[in-house]
Amino acid sequence: MIVQRVQFPPGSKPFMLRVSPDGREVWVQATAANTNTILDARTMVVKASAVDGISPVTNAWSPDGRYVLLTHEGDSTLTIYSAKAERRRRHQGPAVVVRRLDLGADGANIAFTPDSRTAFVAVTGANSVAVIDLQALAVTSHIPVGKWPGGLIYFPPPRRRRTGSGRATPRAHSC
Fold first, then answer.
1. Which residues, at least 6 apart from 156, have a Cβ–Cβ distance to it below 8 Å?
2. What is the DSSP letter of 39?
3. CATH class for domain 14-152?
4. pTM of the entire structure?
5. 70-95 average pLDDT score
6. DSSP labels for 81-144?
7. Where are the domains of the chain?
8. What is the C-alpha separation between 108 and 51, in angstroms, rounded?
9. With the C-alpha atoms ordered 143, 155, 101, 38, is the resulting torsion angle positive or negative?
10. 3-state SS class at 41
């Protein structure tokens, strides 16, 4: 059942959408129009739409709700937006770019550490995963991976737990 349709310009090719953690906004990347559009999740009315690089493909919110990262299929830019509403209101708009980083090639999916200190971005054109320091807002390294990485999931390292004897034992993981 279709509840509501949102009109985008003809040929704009809305590609990916994500709902904000608080459920108030929907961010949609339109690859052919090179835009990031922000909708009010309740009314589906466009709050803002702006050009962002070449072929923006996806976005993700940091777990602490501080940043929204957006990748592009047509260029090597990672756009970092402020997700904090009070900062956005001060700048008279719903999306404030705080930094643009060069990944070296086009990016894809994004993952974060649970503490929001680090982001990982699949860099398909470089066969790597970029490591982003979210405190410094900088690319710190690239991890070589297989050909054309797209999907990305971060699993934290296993925690060690103490047994009755006081020795640390690894936490079990199952797949």
1. 113, 114
2. E
3. mainly beta
4. 0.83
5. 77
6. EE--HHHHHHTTSS-EEEEEEE-SS-EEEEEE-TTSSEEEEEEGGGTEEEEEETTTTEEEEEEE
7. 14-152
8. 18
9. positive
10. coil
Whole-angstrom distance, CA of residue 99 vs CA of residue 97: 6
Q: What is the mean pLDDT of the chain?
A: 85
Residue 117: both structure tokens together:
């200190």
Distance from the first to the final alpha carbon of the chain: 35
Task: Quote the CA–CA distance of 169 and 71 in Å, as a whole number.
Answer: 39
Question: Per the structure block, which two tokens stand in for 155?
Answer: 């699993």
The dihedral formed by the CA atoms of 89, 92, 95 and 99, expressed in degrees to the nearest 10: -100
d(CA 149, CA 50): 27
Hey, is 65 helix, strand or coil? coil
Query: What Rg do the C-alpha atoms of the chain give, in angstroms?
Result: 18
Rounded Cα–Cα distance for residues 149 and 107 (Å): 9
Contact (Cβ atoms closer than 8 angstroms) between residue 25 and residue 40: yes
